[in-house]
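User: I'm preparing a small set of examples for a lab meeting where we compare how different chains pack in three dimensions. I only have the primary sequence for this one, and I'd like the structure in C-alpha cell form so I can line it up with the others. Please keep the answer compact; I'll paste it straight into my notes.
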Amino acid sequence: MKKNSLKNHEIDIFELSKTVWDNRFKIFIILIISLLIGIGGNHYKKINKDILNLYSLSIKKSKDQELTDLKNLSDSLGSKITVTAILQKFIEEVMDFDEFLIASKDYIKPDESVSFSKILSIDLSNSYNDNLSTSSFLGYKLNFEWDNDSEAKQILVRTLDQSLENLRNSIFKELENNLALTAKNEKDQDLKKLVFLEEQRSIAKKLDIEEYSEFNNMPYSNSLFNKNLSKNVNDLTYLRGYKSIDIQINQIKKRKYSHLFKIENQIKNLKGKKIKLVDYNMNLVEKNSLIKSINLTKDLFIAISIGLLFSFIYVIIVFNLRV
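Assistant: Understood. Below is the C-alpha cell output for the 323-residue chain.
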C-alpha cells in the first residue's frame, strides 16, 4: 500500500516536471511580459507621477541700519541683539515645521505619509560663509520640493510670513520680559536701600545726630578705624544725620522710574513700525525641475514575482487537465 502511494507520488512529480518542461516557452513568455509591464510601469511613474519642482530661496541677514532702534532698545536693557542672531532664530523658527505644517495642511492628504525634513531643508549657499561668527557670513538657502507650482508658492509664502511674525512676537516678548526684570531689580534694590536707610535714621535719631558735622565724622579721621571698617563704611551713614537721611528716603519713595516708562513707550512705538528682521525676496525664488528617484529593482522584483505566480497557476491548470 505504501509502495503504491510512493509510486503515485513519484509519478505526480514526474508529470509535473514534464508539464513545466513542455510549457517552458509559454512560462518564459509570461515572465517576459511581466518584466516588460514592470519596466513600463516604472517609466510611466517617472513621466507622469514623480516629477517635482525644487524651489530655492536665499535668506540673508538684514542690514545693521535696519535694526538700529531694536539694537539700542536691547542694549538699554542689558542684552545684546545682532542681525546674525536674528537670522539664526528665524531659521530655527522655519525649521521647527510648525508653520509649514499649518501652511500645507490643505494640500496634504490625511493618510499621506510626508517627511517634512526632505520637503523643506536648509543649507548654506556655496557663496556664503558657514562661520556664523564672521562678518562675511551672509545667510542661508532654503530648499523646498513640491509637485504643484501654485501650491508651492502659497505654502512657501505662508510658511515664511508666519515664521517671521512668530519671530517678531518672540523678540518683542523678550524685550518686554527684560524690561519687567529690570524694573523688578531696580525696585528691589530701592526697597533694600530703604530698609537700610530706615535703620541708619533710627540710629542717628537715638544719638541725636540731626545734621552732619566734623565732630560726628571723627571716626573717619582715625586711620586705624578706617582700616578696620573700610569695607563697612556704609554702616556709618547715620553720621550724616537723620535730616539728610530723611531727604534720601523721600526721594526714593517718590521715584517714578521715568526711564523705564520711556523704554516701555519706545517698545510700543517700535511695535507699530515695520522692521526688516531678515532679507529675502519671493520674486527671486529659483525653480528647477527634478525627477524623484525611482526604485527600479523593487518594481522589477514585483513584476517577476507576479510573473512566477501566473506561471505557477498556469502549470497547475495544465497539469490537472493532463492528469
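A couple of notes for your slides: The first strand starts at residue 51 and ends at 61. Residues 24-301 form a domain with the Bacterial polysaccharide co-polymerase-like fold (CATH 3.30.1890.10).

User: Perfect, thanks.
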